[in-house]
Write a sequence for this structure.
């Protein structure tokens, strides 16, 4: 049924919530949902045209009813025949248009009119539900990207390739936005940890070579597998980037 | 329970299927029964539709304002039938909610859709007694692996799972905090 693929996307987003990294962008599923929407939209446009024809026809038939004689009526009905055969509803609705039936079956005309619009309504519903699924899927991924930016975690090349093109653009722009905000209040480290530190100095072990760093207490040469006793604030950023590990 | 347009759980709970049927024979909506668009759906046909669709379809009414009729009628699902709710009332801890993954949200949707104070009360009481058991369990995670408790945990719906996780985490955190203070 329509809408099932959208649910698959939502389930994928739900599953992604439990993973510790952002999984590959489900481009195929998104594309399927989009083409489903396009198809529904196309069908709706066709039925829109049908409805216009339908109203035109009933207007024509009203005119011919009122004028009753003359070549105009014959011409009108001759024009109508091919259209009439193309649309099954037309015959029944023209029957209902005659005054006698209108009084008795006023309700059934309304039923008919409502039911005629039903397919269009249902298709519209499917489109908006699909839209909701797509948006929710994308939203979940973008929130995770935002979180990464605030946590100062840089994505590796491999992880970047799991994002869609638009997501990469978004990430770039969001990073520059956040650094803009941080720049306004340069005295406060807005990206810092919210947990108060328990010690000023900590032991760290170097996980990968990071070159030399300058601190108030001198120069450290960060070679892999060496250990240092340093001030926390000096190396906080390096811990976040996984160069160092707190012991 | 939070929620909103982008909420994944809300979307999933609204895609829970309900059974219903049209009051009239309808044409051209074959997509609702997985067939080609032009297929007919007769009055007798039973349809399995997601909740959001049911809700939208029952909004379609025919007739004058005071005397209008719905074109789509939905049935009460079996897991909310009289028998089921009696069971919820009698032994809330033994109810298996895992068959309807978003049970509480589905009930919430359903009760917003049709007003049923009685059902709300029964389900609410059930949640209260189950929640206190969940609280006990998360305080004593060592008891989690007894057979009875494992069975109970398997009957959780999505909300209860989340509740269990949050409360187990909070107990862990507060224990760590107390330890920290004493040291």
């Amino acid at each position: 049924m329509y809408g099932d693929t959208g649910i698959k996307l939502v389930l994928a987003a739900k599953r992604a919530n439990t993973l510790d990294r952002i999984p590959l962008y489900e481009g195929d599923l998104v594309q399927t949902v989009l083409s489903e929407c396009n198809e529904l939209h196309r069908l709706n446009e066709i039925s829109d045209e049908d409805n216009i024809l339908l109203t035109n026809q009933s207007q024509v038939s009203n005119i011919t009813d009122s004028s009753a004689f003359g070549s105009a009526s014959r011409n009108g009905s001759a024009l109508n025949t091919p259209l009439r055969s193309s649309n099954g509803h037309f015959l029944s609705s023209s029957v209902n248009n005659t005054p006698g039936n209108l009084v008795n079956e006023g309700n059934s005309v309304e039923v008919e009119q409502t039911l005629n619009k039903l397919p269009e309504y249902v298709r519209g519903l499917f489109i908006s539900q699909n839209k909701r699924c797509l948006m929710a899927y994308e939203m979940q991924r973008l929130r995770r990207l935002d979180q990464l930016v605030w946590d100062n975690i840089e994505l590796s090349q491999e992880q970047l390739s799991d994002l869609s093109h638009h997501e990469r653009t978004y990430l770039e722009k969001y990073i520059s936005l956040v650094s803009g905000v941080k720049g306004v209040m340069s005295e406060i480290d807005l990206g810092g940890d919210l947990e108060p530190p328990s010690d000023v100095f900590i032991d760290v072990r170097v996980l990968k070579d990071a070159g030399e760093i300058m601190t108030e207490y001198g120069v450290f040469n960060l070679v892999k597998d060496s250990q240092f006793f340093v001030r926390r604030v000096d190396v906080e950023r390096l811990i976040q980037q996984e160069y160092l590990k707190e012991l | 329970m939070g929620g909103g347009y982008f909420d994944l759980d809300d979307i999933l709970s609204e895609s829970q299927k309900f059974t219903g049927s049209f009051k009239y024979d309808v044409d051209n909506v074959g997509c609702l029964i997985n067939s080609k668009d032009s297929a007919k759906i007769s009055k007798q046909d039973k349809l399995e539709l997601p909740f959001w669709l049911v809700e939208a379809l029952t909004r379609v009414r025919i007739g004058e304002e005071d005397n209008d009729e719905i074109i789509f009628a939905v049935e009460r699902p079996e897991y909310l039938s009289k028998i089921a709710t009696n069971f919820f009332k009698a032994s809330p801890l033994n109810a298996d909610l895992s068959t309807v993954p978003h049970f509480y949200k589905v009930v919430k949707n359903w009760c917003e859709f049709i007003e049923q104070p009685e059902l709300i009360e029964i389900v609410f009481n059930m949640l209260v007694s189950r929640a206190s058991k969940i609280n006990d369990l998360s305080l004593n995670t060592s008891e989690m692996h007894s057979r009875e408790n494992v069975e109970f945990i398997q009957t959780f719906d999505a909300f209860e799972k989340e509740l269990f996780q949050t409360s187990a985490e909070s107990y862990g955190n507060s224990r760590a905090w107390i330890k920290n203070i004493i040291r």
